[in-house]
Every structure is written in structure tokens, then in C-alpha cells.
Amino acid sequence: MEQIAEAAPVSKRTLYAHFRTKCDLVVAHLRALTASGNTLESVLTREDLSPRERILKLFDPPVADADPVRGCPFIDAAAEFPDPRSPIHAYAREQKLLMTHLVTMLVAELGCARPAALAEQLVTLADGAASRAMVLNEADYGRHARAAAETLLAHALPRTAAP
After folding, report:
1. Rounded distance, CA 97 to CA 91, Å?
2. With helix as H, strand as E and coil as C, how does 39-104 read?
3. Is 115 in contact with 52 (CB distance < 8 Å)?
4. Is the Cβ–Cβ distance between 27 and 87 less than 8 Å?
5. Smallest Cα–Cα separation from 147: which of 124, 131, 125?
6. CA 59 to CA 145: how far, in whole Å?
7. Which residues are CB-contacts of 50 (< 8 A; sequence separation ≥ 6)?
8. What's residue 65's pLDDT?
9. Residues above pLDDT 70, as percent of the chain
10. I need a labelling partner for 142 at 20 to 30 A (CA). Which of 10, 16, 80, 129 fits?
11. Helix or strand (DSSP H, E) at 138
12. Does pLDDT of 163 surpass 60?
């Protein structure tokens, strides 16, 4: 908090009035990120795309003028605060479970016989691709996971739902 207080454009008193602890500040940051729509999960609720397109958008590279690839902020937060009882870890878990729920609903809409299993596979691919993109500093790394996701979808969905 000391470093943040030094860098913040407000007084320490104001900072501490809004965020009593580092935990409060981190959770507020994650909530703001969620609300901004700049997360992998946000594409899953877009009404302008078909369910299949929403799922495959999980693997798209970030927009050209985006910040450097940093992986998934929720995975990063959970790794930084590994105690499952931590409010930060709990919020990160909540967001990851929401992502799985949204993908489950989309694959069920596409006619998948086992939507929960397929959803787990797809979100594992998306999270893995985000992590590897960050480690390798390769923004379009998701192309590899997208190819795997397309194969999973083709094998798990009725023939009429694929492509």
C-alpha cells in the first residue's frame, strides 16, 4: 500500500478512506476490470455473435492498441493470493466459475450432449492460451488453442451445429 500511496494522485488519507487494505484495493481493481468488459469472459455475453463465435472469440488476439499481454488477471490474482479464503482468491474463483457457466450454457445451446465436460475443456484451453501468450509474449498464441477448440466443438456437437 505504501508504494501505491506514493504513486497515487491522491493523499494517503484519501486512499485509505476508500481502501483500508491492499486486499480491498485489489478486489476493487478486479471488479472494475470485470465491469469494463475487457476480460475473456465479456465476449461470452455478446448478443451480436452466435454461441459458437462467442466461444471461439476466447482465442482471438487482443486488439492492436491493447496493453502488453499479461495473461488472465483472475489467474494472476489467485496465484498472488493462494489462500482460497482470501477475498481476492474467492473473487477470482467466482469469475472463473462464471466463465465456465457461460461456456456451458453456450455449448448446451449448440446441442452438446455433455456441455459441462466440453465447457471445462474449452475454458482450460482459453486459460492456458492466455498464460502461454503472456509467458511467451506472443499476443496471437490463442490460434493454437482455437484450432483445438474447433476440433473439440466439431467432435462434441451435432453435425448441424458445427461450422
Report:
1. 10
2. CHHHHHHCCCCCHHHHHHHCCCCCCCCCCCCCCCHHHHHHHHCCCCCCHHHHHHHHHHHHHHHHHH
3. no
4. yes
5. 125
6. 7
7. none
8. 64
9. 84
10. 80
11. none
12. no
Whole-number Å distance between alpha carbons of 92 and 44: 17
Contacts of 2-7 with C-beta under 8 Å, sequence gap 24+, read none
The pLDDT tens digits of the residues spanning 40-96 come to: 788 999 999 999 999 999 999 876 666 665 788 999 999 999 999 999 999 999 999
User: How far, in Å, CA of 156 to CA of 163, rounded?
Assistant: 12
Cell numbers describing residue 50: 452466435
- For residues 27 and 88, the answer to whether their CB atoms sit within 8 Å is yes
Q: Is the separation of the CB atoms in 27 and 94 below 8 Å?
A: no
Name the nearest CA neighbour of 57 among 155, 132, 131, 125. Answer: 125
Amino acid at site 37:
G
Assess contact for 87 and 1: CB atoms under 8 A.
no
Which grid cell is 109? 445451446
| Other beta carbons within 10 Å of 122 | 26
